[in-house]
């Protein structure tokens, strides 16, 4: 069947099971938008206020659903506005296909109006990218883009389609989607060695990361922990894979990890690292981090093995497949002494850093949301102290329910991401924890949330400062608060109302529960501004490059 | 070759931008390229890139594994120096008059180099060989005054029947 390139884009999206896309129209994607118009019964396009918002929405949509997220933008500024979102998806291994228009092939290289070499720009932040200059390749390139985005270690793929290719005649032949095969590629020896290390160890520690979430391997992870009688700690990206109330779960480790999670990890003699890449924020001093322990590293990406820390045994493959095999072959273990030690660390006072229960503070606010949010609520964050507090205090109960910018640490991620997450979870109530700095970056997307009546509960922990930077200035720069006290005069309630949303301001504890309750009962987006102290700190903190011995538990 | 030097051979899709992807990866991961040569193989869709670089085992492993992740890279191999034929071609221009060329032709003969262009006031020489031989020749020529020098970078092929072959799956993917 002969169709135009632009229609081909839509056909392939439908083939791939895409029903929601995010984006922003413009000159070089007019043809694609015309086809979106004609196929609006099959694909819903969400127009954001800025392409960055759309790119974060596609990223979060992918993380919540496990499907590929799609974002569309025009050439030039439209395409460059995607860059932060693509880099964010790349660092957090999120499957996104970004489709950009470009000027016609003949105009490429002439500095034509809105011409940017977006494949050149995004080369280091995509798994792969394409510029399609031959209309007969369009269908296969698009299919391949989806396959690459979701296979192996997922990531973003960009397809740049010049305008004349969108207008060209192409042959369409329907094809079945290439399924992702989940395998483990290691030989018998590596498995035997891993099993030996596990059987011989006294103090195992399961350290789980984003790979477990992305491979839907929560069940297998918990089975492994039960079988070998091991505690579990998590990187930030790994949160939500294990329910907060699982007795084996110690919480997040790393720079702002729970005391017990880091302390128990330091005492372990065997680290079973699963789908995690030992980022510097997670390990601190890498040499001290692995002192006295052996490491088994399970990951789908061979280049992660030994990249950041040396490893004893590596099991390469899909986390779920590897864990299944391990669980089925390992003998059950029982480690009473270790168990006792872990329990005593869990119960020590440093593991119970509680903020006062009688003020409006990060902990009381997050607990209020814990009380009112249904168990399966998806929770997103921006970047800063509020992100860490959410990671520490929120009660995640279901995999894929925590959406945050890990690797890139993108302030401004929150609004776009929360919209994408909300759409991904069938427009159920979706929570965003943000703060004044991050919110100001992309608050324009409030308008999108209102247009689409998305039921967002936006909780803005207003400390009237760039809190995370201020914390570093307090601790490491002798309280020289350079450019972090912004003195914004924004009235968030009026702002929310101006956008057509509901705004609630909370300054006293007795207003808190009602505000959260009302927000969950409301239709459409609600913004709760909770005013907190400027000098509230994220604790504990292991200073950059430090070890568990340097942990700061009191400010 | 220095002990920390190594040679990588890879087969890549013969497409626009592939060289940028490969060299960009080196830059981004803070690995250095000492020399790079590239050309199409017997299959017009596939090019072969030979890179020499330096680093310890960590660097070597990381480079190979990171390169293997590039979609356009079909196979990467570290070439063992003991069982690899390595060649480089160097063109050297000496702007010297006839009367000052004493000893030059003798060196050309000893190093098995070639004169590829000859004028009253200039000579252009070509030498092919392993890096050390080329280096020695260049050093010998320095006193004559080198006006211009171009090196192709090393290219390499295994001894014996062994070839750099893509597996069936990646060949098909292309
Ligand atoms: C786009 C971007 N710019 C700058 C930073 C550096 N940065 C990290 S945290 C932070 C402060 C965040 O402030 P806010 O959003 O108000 O959150 P808080 O720490 O107060 O909770 C800054 C500036 C960043 N992560 N991202």
UniProtKB/TrEMBL annotation, chain A:
Organism for this UniProt entry: Oligosphaera ethanolica
Cellular component per GO, a single term: acetolactate synthase complex
Keywords from the named record: Amino-acid biosynthesis, Branched-chain amino acid biosynthesis, Magnesium, Metal-binding, Thiamine pyrophosphate, Transferase
Thiamine pyrophosphate enzyme central domain segment(s): 192-326
Lineage of the organism: Bacteria, Pseudomonadati, Lentisphaerota, Oligosphaeria, Oligosphaerales
Single annotated GO MF: magnesium ion binding
InterPro entries reported in the protein's UniProt record: Acetolactate_synth_lsu (IPR012846), AHAS_TPP (IPR039368), DHS-like_NAD/FAD-binding_dom (IPR029035), THDP-binding (IPR029061), Thiamin_PyroP_enz_cen_dom (IPR012000), Thiamin_PyroP_enz_TPP-bd_dom (IPR012001), TPP_enz (IPR045229), TPP_enzyme_TPP-bd (IPR011766)
Cofactor binding note of this UniProt entry: Binds 1 Mg(2+) ion per subunit. Binds 1 thiamine pyrophosphate per subunit.
Cofactors (names): Mg(2+); thiamine diphosphate
Span of domain Thiamine pyrophosphate enzyme N-terminal TPP-binding: 4-119
Recorded superkingdom: Bacteria
Documented EC number(s): 2.2.1.6
Reactions this protein catalyses: 2 pyruvate + H(+) = (2S)-2-acetolactate + CO2
Official protein name in the record: Acetolactate synthase
Enzyme kind, highest EC tier: transferase
Pathway note: Amino-acid biosynthesis; L-valine biosynthesis; L-valine from pyruvate: step 1/4; Amino-acid biosynthesis; L-isoleucine biosynthesis; L-isoleucine from 2-oxobutanoate: step 1/4
One of the protein's GO biological processes: L-valine biosynthetic process
From TrEMBL, chain B:
UniProt-recorded name of the protein: Acetolactate synthase small subunit
Record pathway: Amino-acid biosynthesis; L-valine biosynthesis; L-valine from pyruvate: step 1/4; Amino-acid biosynthesis; L-isoleucine biosynthesis; L-isoleucine from 2-oxobutanoate: step 1/4
Top-level taxon of the source organism: Bacteria
Protein family: Belongs to the acetolactate synthase small subunit family.
Keyword Transferase: yes
Protein species of origin: Oligosphaera ethanolica
Recorded GO MF terms: acetolactate synthase activity; acetolactate synthase regulator activity
Pfam short name (any one): ALS_ss_C
Domain ACT: 7-81
Catalytic activity: 2 pyruvate + H(+) = (2S)-2-acetolactate + CO2
EC number, UniProt record: 2.2.1.6
Record lineage: Bacteria, Pseudomonadati, Lentisphaerota, Oligosphaeria, Oligosphaerales
Keyword terms, alphabetized: Amino-acid biosynthesis, Branched-chain amino acid biosynthesis, Transferase
GO cellular component: cytosol
Role: Catalyzes the conversion of 2 pyruvate molecules into acetolactate in the first common step of the biosynthetic pathway of the branched-amino acids such as leucine, isoleucine, and valine.
Subunit structure: Dimer of large and small chains.
GO biological process, one term: isoleucine biosynthetic process
